[in-house]
Amino acid sequence: MLKNLYRLIISKLPKKYRLALTYFRIFGVFPNIENPQNFNEKVLNRILYDKDSQFSLLADKYAVRAYVQEKIGEDYLIPLILCTENPDDLYGMDQWEKIVIKPNHGAGMVKIIDDVPSSREKDYIIEQAQRWLKLDFSQVCDEWHYSLIQPKLVVEQKITSEGEALRDYKFHRFTTDNGDFKQLLQVVAERSEKGYETVFFDVNNLDSILHSPFGFQLTLNAYEQMRIREIVKLNEVLCNEYDYVRLDWYITQQSIYFGEITFTPGAGRSKSFAGSFGEKIGQLWVMQ
């Protein structure tokens, strides 16, 4: 009951106060949105004041494929099986094994399928997909640009082999005062009983962890490091008009694949950027 009352009160507040209050619930202090200093505060400032219409195009997991193909080529795109606005179209797919189903307009919604599901399981998957497409993801954390994305289902080929773990390689790219790029790598592994497994590296020193917000330890092997250096160069071609952007990639045993583009990581309320680390990262973001 109290949760429902809280949500009702929050929904009635002006957006600025809603962002501040939800930030306070996580960190115990109110953010400085007007004169942001740490990384999360700068994300909140972007959410509130930066209305660049390109955010919606580039955050769209389907539409961004054309942009990436134009900039760096189609070889880096995960093979596409289907894109549709009608979940019932999934029934007509010839391929149901080794696929990934997700919507194009949000985060945290994904179905990984290894083996062909039964008819009943397909029904459940399609019902779940229908719920995804009805969700206005912009209302979840006040990230306005998701409201301009026409919801679609994207079905892609599963890019990992059996037993192969898939990590997210998230490159936080900042534009410096002299126009050069500074990139920090955030590697996200699977969740465990210990918490969220994520660590940060400076792309110029991949042998040492820069920051581990939750104590997770990770060593990047020689193959990963080679692929990361390749991605760093590709990132310099993408979205280079922005003072900050996050560019996500996947590294498999055979190749590298583009993942997505994010302009408001963690919706400005990520514990990965808490404390002094968030303040240091905030200094890298020279807001225009």
Give the arrangement of secondary structure elements.
Layout (H helix, E strand, L loop, with lengths): L1 H11 L2 H13 L11 H11 L4 H6 L4 H9 L7 E5 L14 E5 L7 E3 L5 H16 L3 H4 L11 E5 L10 E8 L5 E8 L9 E5 L19 H14 L8 E8 L4 E7 L12 H10 L4
Antiparallel strand pairs: 1-4, 2-3, 2-4, 5-6, 5-8, 6-7, 8-9
Helix pairs in contact: 3-9
Short characterization:
This protein is of the alpha+beta class. 33% of the residues lie in helices and 19% in strands. β8 and β9 (256-262) form a beta hairpin.
Report on the architecture of this protein.
By secondary structure, this protein is an alpha+beta fold. It has 3 domains: 1-25; 31-77 and 163-288, D-amino Acid Aminotransferase, Chain A, domain 1; 79-157, no CATH class. It has 9 helices and 9 strands. The chain has helices at 2-12, 15-27, 39-49, 54-59, 64-72, 119-134, 138-141, 222-235, 275-284, and strands at residues 80-84, 99-103, 111-113, 153-157, 168-175, 181-188, 198-202, 244-251, 256-262. The protein has a 5-stranded antiparallel beta sheet with strand order 7-6-5-8-9. The chain has a 4-stranded antiparallel beta sheet with strand order 1-4-2-3, covered by helices on one side. The mean pLDDT is 93.
